[in-house]
Design goal:
By secondary structure, the chain is an alpha/beta fold. The chain contains 17 helices and 7 strands. Helix content is 51%, strand content 9%. The strands form 2 sheets. The protein has a 5-stranded mixed beta sheet with strand order 3-2-1-6-7. It has a two-stranded antiparallel sheet with strand order 4-5.
């Protein structure tokens, strides 16, 4: 069989994914009309939910044929007539499609990739899927048992790779479907399944509030080396995640003029998120979003008590997070005295060091959007927006833990705004935070001035 015939047969078998698996691919002449009419009235069978072995069998056969065809050396064309532009275009399209088939993925991931040096291998993998091959296999190993329960008639690593390529490059379901020879609705279903698993099954393992004493000591010491401020354990910030969808209520319009949802994260000194919240439309301000978060409720209710208190000028200082002036000043969340440097020398020095600590979360958000480009213009259904964002945060942490090379930072415009009003229920937290902030500022100024 020549290469064009193999590719044609491969494409025909791929089409069987959208046909009822009980329908025979070879019909008798007398039943052709009946089979044709039945196939047009039968609803497509999803690869995600099929319980039959037929789709997987034919998909595997097609993949093998596609791989054989794409790997055969081209035959001599001396005796054949010159190909037409249309034929050349069709051949190129078929070759491009074979690059994203299961067989091509298998060849890359199991054979070709091990013939490369590790740096080159991982660089190639990052360019395709946003992370190195070892981190990719970690993700697959952790998700495989859950994917197996879904009866997905695709290999787990192939499904994960397909979703990662969408998250890393921001591909739409339609454009990705053309690459992988699948229907767009299947791409969306697989994306929703994998991001949901990342956001639920892997979240507790990779996004954790630092409550253990060992981790608290490591985090606060690292922040103190950076800022000279004791007992800082994180930095908080919010960022709008732009939505591709346009027809949305007015409250989705963010401060930069586009439709978005609000993401709030807390990061440590390694730019690893230890809290993530996606609960509000883009028009919600940072303070309101924070007050609606589970983290705020746990901190104000005393559910989280960091067991590492120090004494600063007679004030018991427990671990705290820092934010800009868009957040409320509280005993566990310290903000600058002034957004424009109008305080005393001690207050201005404190503000500079606090903002230096806050810079880690700004960089973490820049890495998140730079590494997972789908967050620059999120093209998924509105119901699946939160899980997609959280999934990207989980993958970000995996990359930071594995010390993956950091991409170019995505930069949001500078924020501005007035400090939020203090709620009556927060006044005790506010007054304690106010005295605590002043004690830290005076202590910092005295220590640095005496050097």
């Amino acid at each position: 069989m020549d290469q064009s015939f193999l590719l044609m047969l491969s494409n025909l078998l791929h089409l069987h994914n959208s046909i009822d698996p009980t329908t025979s691919l070879i019909s008798s002449p007398t039943s052709t009309t009946t089979a044709s009419s039945a196939s047009t009235s039968t609803s497509p069978t999803s690869l995600l939910t099929s319980s039959s072995a037929a789709p997987l069998l034919f998909f595997t056969i097609a993949s093998v044929l596609s791989y054989i065809a794409s790997s055969r050396p081209s035959s001599s064309s001396s005796s054949s007539s010159p190909s037409t532009p249309a034929a050349s275009s069709s051949s190129a399209a078929a070759a491009a499609a074979s690059d994203y088939s299961v067989s091509a993925f298998r060849a890359l991931s199991t054979e070709h990739i091990w013939s490369l040096e590790a740096p080159l291998r991982d660089a190639q993998w990052r360019s395709l899927y946003g992370l190195s091959y070892p981190v990719f296999t970690t993700v697959v190993d952790k998700l495989k048992p859950h994917i197996a329960l879904s009866n997905l008639s695709l290999p787990s690593d192939y499904a994960v790779a397909m979703v990662l390529s969408r998250l890393a490059h921001g591909f739409s379901a339609k454009s990705l479907a053309a690459r992988y020879s699948l229907e767009p609705y299947l791409i969306s279903k697989i994306t929703n399944m994998v991001t949901r698993l990342l956001a639920t099954k892997l979240y507790p393992e990779f996004i954790k509030i630092p409550v253990s004493r060992r981790r608290l000591i490591e985090t606060t010491q690292a922040f103190e080396e950076l800022t000279s401020l004791p007992n800082m354990c994180g930095a908080i910030d919010g960022t709008p995640i732009r939505l591709h969808k346009q027809n949305l209520p007015a409250n989705y319009k963010c401060r930069y003029g586009y439709n978005a949802v609000q993401l709030e994260v807390v990061a440590d000194h390694k730019k690893i998120f230890w809290d993530v919240c996606v609960k509000a439309p883009g028009g919600t301000d940072d303070a309101t979003h924070f007050r609606e978060s589970l983290l705020y409720n746990r901190l104000t209710s005393g559910d989280i008590v960091w067991d590492k208190a120090i004494n600063v000028r007679g004030h018991p200082v427990r671990p705290y997070i820092v934010g800009d002036w868009c957040y409320p000043l509280l005993s566990f969340l310290l903000t600058p005295f002034s957004p424009n440097g109008m305080g005393t020398p001690a207050q201005n020095l404190f503000d500079g060091m606090l903002m230096k600590g806050r810079s880690v979360v700004v960089e973490a958000i820049g890495l998140l959007k730079g590494r997972w480009k789908i967050l620059q213009d999120l093209n998924v259904g509105l119901n699946h927006v939160p899980q997609t964002i959280v999934a990207c945060c989980v993958l970000h942490n995996l990359c930071q833990i594995a010390r993956e090379p950091e991409p170019e930072l995505w930069k949001d415009p500078e924020e501005n705004g007035m400090p939020p009003r203090v709620h009556d229920s927060e006044k005790s937290f506010y007054y304690f935070g106010e005295s605590l902030r002043q004690a830290l500022a005076d202590d910092l100024h005295q220590r640095l001035s005496s050097r």
